[in-house]
């Protein structure tokens, strides 16, 4: 089959986040984050794992940058830990904490790897959570002060800035569904958190412009794709509701200056509304330079035959089911990754076209895409993760199709460079291109690492080559 070439200058790389890889949880002035607290609550994280050590990347900058160089990465997406930089949440800046990121950025630049810096990847200082966290407006202003400290410390050395990673997870998964820190189950808490996260994003974009910094700034939401089970209107409507809750709730305010109307009405039926104040939507819709997109999976969606009445019952799970009235259906015999997510590359292609058409084809970096397969080293020490290679091949073909279809795609960072702390799953789920022995912290590049290295160095893909390695 012919070679699929990517545009000249396409930015290939890999991604991680601070709490998932850094460790050093109590070193050099870092204060506890909400994940330090959450992971110590019984039953919250598999096997009571936590990020105290993680991959120990705080002490292994040279080793990890060398892995990135060996991969052929031209960019590294990482996040800064707010409790490391401003341990009290607001106020005094901890220069020792900033020094770690200065060293990391310097090492990346020396290796000809472009830093892509995320300001918030879920590790809110616990001291701010104690004062209401993302449910209160003040946290948005505290975030901007923290962001300004990082902007000034790394101005001129970081070109690509991301304000927020996956606001749906920050708000819905963490405040509505209770699966991530701080572990709340309350619709109003989720909607308030979502609004203040978006406000913090908009305020940070404005601060970035005010400071006159070189570079570009955007946000990185996670998106999924809902394909209608049928062309019945009920199923089409179910898909729209699912997308409004997951995708549009965060993207419409940025690109259109308002929340999706139907979801506002459905939340209102539960007595829930976002705490919008005068001028907020103008701030939230401040012009960004690019959009980061995290994609892992999607589904075929249909409406329930007997919808649950949309009303207050006191049962959050039941209320959420009524709010959405959607159900997923496996109509194709999906393969699933070890975390249980459907392997659905067609959804990747379709959501990229949807973004192109709905939001005016903004510049897009794929800031996360990858798969969980828990392959361990064989007797010879080699990690044969052919299923992950197949996942990457299928999704990179979808990416190439989207580029050929006119989507304004600028780069791709695989999730993740390293096996790491996978949030509520602890260390039981592995997404890395590099296997990490969490007892010794030994790093071993997997077969997928070597396969992606070939793609990155060629800036091209030959479909079908990965099939021989899948098992």
> Could you spell the SSE succession in H and E letters?
EEHHHEHHEHHEHHEEHHHEHEHEHEEEHE
Which runs of at least 5 residues are low in confidence (pLDDT < 50)?
none
First-residue to last-residue Cα separation:
21 Å
Number of strands: 14
What does the radius of gyration come to? 21 Å
Give the class from helix and strand content and strand pairing: alpha/beta
Number of domains: 1
Helical content band: 25-40%
Label the CATH architecture: Alpha-Beta Barrel
Estimate the mean pLDDT confidence.
97
Residues in β-strands, percent:
15-25%
Q: Which superfamily, in CATH terms, is the homologous superfamily?
A: Glycosidases
CATH fold naming: TIM Barrel
| Largest beta-sheet details | 8 strands, parallel, barrel
CATH class: Alpha Beta
Provide an overview of this structure:
- Strands 2-3-4-5-6-8-10-11 form an eight-stranded parallel barrel, surrounded by six helices. Strands 1-14 form a two-stranded antiparallel sheet.
- The model has no long low-confidence stretch (mean pLDDT 97).
- The chain starts with a strand and ends in a 10-residue tail after the last strand.
- The longest helix has 25 residues, at 187-211.
- It is an alpha/beta fold and 471 residues long.
- Helix content is 40%, strand content 15%.
- α15 (386-404) links the parallel β10 and β11.
């Amino acid at each position: 089959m012919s070679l699929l070439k990517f545009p000249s200058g396409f930015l290939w790389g890999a991604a991680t986040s601070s709490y998932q890889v850094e460790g050093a949880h109590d070193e050099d002035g870092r204060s506890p984050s909400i994940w330090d607290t959450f992971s110590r609550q019984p039953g919250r994280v598999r096997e009571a794992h936590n990020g105290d050590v993680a991959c120990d990347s705080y002490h292994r900058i040279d080793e990890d940058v060398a892995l990135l160089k060996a991969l052929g990465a031209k960019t590294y997406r990482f996040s800064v830990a707010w409790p490391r930089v401003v341990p009290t949440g607001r106020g005094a800046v901890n220069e020792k904490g900033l020094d770690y990121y200065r060293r990391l950025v310097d090492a990346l630049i020396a290796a000809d790897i472009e830093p892509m810096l995320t300001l918030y990847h879920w590790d809110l200082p616990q001291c701010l959570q104690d004062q209401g966290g993302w449910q209160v407006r003040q946290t948005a202003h505290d975030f901007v002060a923290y962001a300004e400290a990082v902007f000034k410390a790394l101005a001129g050395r970081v070109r690509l800035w991301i304000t927020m990673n996956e606001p749906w997870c920050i708000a819905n998964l963490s405040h509505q569904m209770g699966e991530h820190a701080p572990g709340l189950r309350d619709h109003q808490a989720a909607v308030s958190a979502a609004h203040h996260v978006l406000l913090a994003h908009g305020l940070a974009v404005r601060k970035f412009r005010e400071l006159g910094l070189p570079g570009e700034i955007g946000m990185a939401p996670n998106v999924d794709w809902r394909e209608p089970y049928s062309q019945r209107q009920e199923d089409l409507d179910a898909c729209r509701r699912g997308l409004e809750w997951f995708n549009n709730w965060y993207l419409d305010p940025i690109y259109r200056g308002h929340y999706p109307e139907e979801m506002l009405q459905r939340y209102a039926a539960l007595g829930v509304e976002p705490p919008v104040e005068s001028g907020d939507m103008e701030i939230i819709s401040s012009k960004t330079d690019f959009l980061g997109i995290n994609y892992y999976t999607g589904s075929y969606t249909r409406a329930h035959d007997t919808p649950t009445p949309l009303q207050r019952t006191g049962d959050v799970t039941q209320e959420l089911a009524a709010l959405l009235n959607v159900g997923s259906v496996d109509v194709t015999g999906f393969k699933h990754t070890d975390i249980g997510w459907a392997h659905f590359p067609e959804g990747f292609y379709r959501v990229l076209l949807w973004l192109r058409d709905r939001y005016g084809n903004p510049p897009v970096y794929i800031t996360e895409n990858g798969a969980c397969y828990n392959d361990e080293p064989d007797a010879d020490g080699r990690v044969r993760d052919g299923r992950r290679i197949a996942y990457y091949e299928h999704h990179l073909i979808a990416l190439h199709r989207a580029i050929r279809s006119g989507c304004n795609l600028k780069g791709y960072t695989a999730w993740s460079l390293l096996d790491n702390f996978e949030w509520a799953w602890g260390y039981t789920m592995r997404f890395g291109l590099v296997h990490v022995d969490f007892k010794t912290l030994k790093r071993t590049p997997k077969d997928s690492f070597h396969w992606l290295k070939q793609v990155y160095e060629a800036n091209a893909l030959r479909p079908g080559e990965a099939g021989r390695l899948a098992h």
